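Alginate lyase domain-containing protein, pasting as requested.
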Amino acid sequence: MRPGSIPRVLGLATALAGVLAAAFMTPASAEKAPDAAPARPATAAVAAAPANFTHPGVNLNTAQLDFIRGKVQAGAQPWKSAYDQMMAGKYASLSRTAKPRAIVECGSYSNPNNGCTDEREDAIAAYTDALAWYITRDDRYAQKAIQLMDAWSGSIQDHTNSNAPLQTGWAGSSWPKAAEIIKHVYGNWPNAGRFSTMLRTVYLPEIINGSNSNGNWELTMMEAAVSISVFLDDGASYDKAISKYLVRVPAYIYLASDGALPKTVPSQNLNTRDKIVSYWQGQGTFMTGLTQETCRDFVHTGYGISSVGHVYETARLQGQDLFPQVGERLRQALGFQAKYEIQAEPVPSSLCGGSVTRGLGPITEVGYNALNTRLGYAMTNTQRLTEQQRPSGTNNLFVAWETLTNASNPS
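Structure tokens follow.
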């Protein structure tokens, strides 16, 4: 399947129907707003893709990379310990050998697993090497990143089986992070065009049209689609992915201002309360910060929240402020899950029958930095969890080294 040609603006007002209420809500209990919260003007429309994309501009820009490098070189914490953690692990190994395949076959829960782990981990390794090069300026790391990216761009043709869209999203979220640094800062990459062709013909068609699966699937897919679109300077695909993201986020994170029931994705035909409750893992009491997968487990919930934060941050770097549509949902989702992850209070019987499955993962740094460090919003529970987890590592899927990259990063 190939993404069709679509107008740059895409009629985003339709996709945002009902979403803008988030800009006017009264903050609820998961994370209290400070008495003097920074003023956020309401925004009636979302800008289209930039006329000229910022590079590097997937999750990190040059100012942020320079901040990281300076902190590590100064031995400042927590960045130095996060850097040491990254460099001591398998992903930074200069002896790593790529394991590319023509066909990556991934079934449910990666069974079968024919190249699934190899692809995801090689993509994370390429990103790790790109970061290592930026910090050290040791060309061996840039060349290792190129070696990994070239191996896959010269081999892969397709993703197959039931988890193909999710697998494509996971790997497709990491590849552009590496490629942005190597192409736009390091620069000496003869096969960059072939890598672009791989992303455009193998990855983007698998994810750009979304899915009707659990929210973390499509959120991860849209993260990859946005990131790939930035790398490819593809405004039409960027707009399409952002449009889908802005429909999916309010259908994944509930706010009291949504009303008695959560928002839904129209294509899923969740047109009765019973269908919605079933889709929300049997949870019939809706509270601010609850996600569609909270009562499934916090692991999958973390995947979804992470992608919400990643797209929010990448869009910001491209000059697009999604705070009115996404900011409060992200803040409350982080706070709600963090509260029960750190066991700040007992799980009430009204939530998941009084029991949750913890394991949120290393996913809080990006959202916490974006909303607390930069905008000054109180995030007490999220702060506590974030600081407990430092230095955060990787989930071995698509999240990596975010204490290093995002902790207190003001740029």
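Note for the archive: The chain has two domains: 24-33+60-75+290-411, 89-252.
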